[in-house]
Amino acid sequence: KQAGATVVSGDDLVMLPRAQKNATEIQGFRNAHVRDGVAMVSFLAWWHREKNPPTEMLFDEKLRAYRQKQEGFVEESFPSICGVGAHGAIIHYRATATTNSTARNEDMVLIDSGGQYRDATTDITRTLCLGAPTPQQKKHYTLVLKGHVALSRAVFPMGTKATELDVLARMFLWREGLDYAHGTGHGVGSFLGVHEGPQSIGKPSTRASPNCCRA
Prior knowledge:
Blueprint: H1 15-19, H2 23-49, H3 56-68, E1 73-76, E2 81-84, E3 108-113, E4 115-117, E5 120-121, E6 124-129, H4 135-152, H5 162-174, E7 185-186, E8 200-201
Antiparallel strand pairs: 1-4, 2-3, 3-6, 4-5, 7-8
Helix pairs in contact: 2-3, 4-5
């Protein structure tokens, strides 16, 4: 403004073309996820060999080290989220020196992480159990898994809204009076931002309320 420019508010004309990946970008995602999967499997193998109970910050350190060994790796796509026990329920949790929990046999561990590779960006979440899971842990894990399977197998027409797909991921939880407080999925850039719009899978902005009539 100080230079005499005029600020205009409007739609980002680049957003939609950027979100629609070409064949090279799609293949890059496939290739990067193979290498990212190798890093995750190597990390899990280390975990099973580890004799001493690991901490959240050690999980972060080791996973980053295995990703760094992969071809085309540049950096993490975001700081890894490694939550032990109740910390796994905190959205975007980051372990600190004062919160750094140690994983015990009865704990579930949530790991949300990703990498920036020359050919793609990855963002994955894994939920793991160190020991024998409890009946409740099995039930909740299975309900989430059933939602993932339903969403991954969905066949839908062009123009289907993301909120309509979101129901598939949540419906098994809803039947049990359960839910999660965040979105189901989001767009990912191609060696760009790990959160890329406009595409996402989540709840509608207009929520269902009592006594509302629909025809």
